[in-house]
């Protein structure tokens, strides 16, 4: 009886093994955490499309005034955004990008006008600081008493939830610092930029085109501005709100303080350099 039981048990085990051997299967590997994209912003087509053309496997998404070129650089997800010009467009494009794509960092880049006589057309300023050069509070003057812009006070609209004009708590300039890791990446590759020199400086942003040398000098002397443009500070404000690392990179396309004439070809040179920054930053992220 024992021998019979053993034989039956052995047959059952062999039958089960045969059935198991015949079952087809597939193994699904576990997924790693998706890489967060790096976003590069450019206001005008000449400040965005050159870099967008270098992305791999590009697809476009459009919303409002904005185009997102979604692709990769050397396999890492990168999105180039044409934000359109101005503070409002850039703020909106930045908020949409952060909500939609959850970026690891944002680089705002493009052309600018020089405020520093020592900088020439083709030089690049890395935004160690960025500020809104359109936020001012005038002094009280009665009718027929005129206006004196050199007396205007900086106005920090983020100082409180209350009125920025009443009281004195907002009478200061707010500087947004460039992210140290992005600055490190930018400085690591600056020797590869051949059109001009690369320096750290202060970027002034406003929906304002300054042609008055005295006003340009006033902004430079009072607030340390190296260049002016129309986008970076609004992107910096939104990035700060969402805690996203930010840096602006601006090439001088003209400089009225030393007679430097407008040269739109600088936009491509800036994008060439920013591509190198992004690749260096990717190396740092993947260490």
From TrEMBL:
GO biological process, alphabetically ordered: L-methionine salvage from S-adenosylmethionine; nucleoside metabolic process
Record-linked SUPFAM superfamilies: Purine and uridine phosphorylases
InterPro entries named among the record's database cross-references: Nucleoside_phosphorylase_d, Nucleoside_phosphorylase_sf
Disulfide bond is among the record's keywords: no
GO molecular function, one term: adenosylhomocysteine nucleosidase activity
Keywords: Signal
GO cellular component, one term: cytosol
Signal peptide: 1-21
Domain Nucleoside phosphorylase: 37-282
Keyword hit for Lyase: no
Name the record gives this protein: Nucleoside phosphorylase domain-containing protein
Taxonomic source organism: Fusobacterium ulcerans 12-1B
Origin organism lineage: Bacteria, Fusobacteriati, Fusobacteriota, Fusobacteriia, Fusobacteriales
């Amino acid at each position: 009886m024992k021998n019979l039981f053993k034989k039956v048990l052995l047959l059952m085990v062999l039958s089960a093994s045969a059935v198991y051997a015949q079952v087809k299967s597939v193994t699904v590997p576990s997924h790693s955490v998706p890489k967060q994209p790096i976003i590069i912003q450019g206001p005008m087509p000449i400040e965005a499309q050159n870099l967008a053309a270098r992305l791999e496997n590009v697809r476009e998404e459009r919303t409002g005034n904005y185009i997102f070129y979604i692709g990769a650089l050397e396999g890492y997800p990168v999105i180039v955004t044409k934000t359109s010009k101005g503070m409002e467009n850039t703020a909106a494009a930045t908020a949409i990008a952060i909500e939609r794509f959850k970026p690891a960092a944002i680089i705002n880049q493009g052309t600018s006008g020089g405020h520093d006589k020592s900088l020439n057309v083709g030089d690049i300023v890395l935004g160690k600081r960025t500020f809104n050069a359109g936020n001012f509070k005038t002094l009280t003057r009665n009718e027929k008493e005129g206006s004196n812009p050199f007396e205007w006070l900086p106005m920090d609209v983020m100082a409180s939830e209350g009125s920025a004009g009443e009281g004195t708590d907002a009478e200061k300039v707010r500087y947004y610092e460039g992210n140290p890791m992005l600055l490190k990446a930018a400085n690591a590759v600056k020797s590869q930029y051949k059109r001009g020199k690369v320096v750290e400086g202060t970027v002034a942003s406003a929906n304002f085109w300054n042609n008055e040398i005295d006003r340009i000098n006033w902004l430079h002397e009072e607030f340390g501005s190296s260049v002016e443009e129309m986008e970076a500070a609004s992107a910096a404000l939104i990035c700060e709100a969402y805690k996203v690392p930010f840096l602006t990179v601006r090439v001088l396309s003209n400089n009225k303080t030393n007679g430097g004439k407008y040269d739109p070809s600088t936009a491509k040179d800036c994008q060439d350099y920013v591509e190198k920054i992004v690749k260096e930053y990717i190396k740092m992220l993947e260490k």
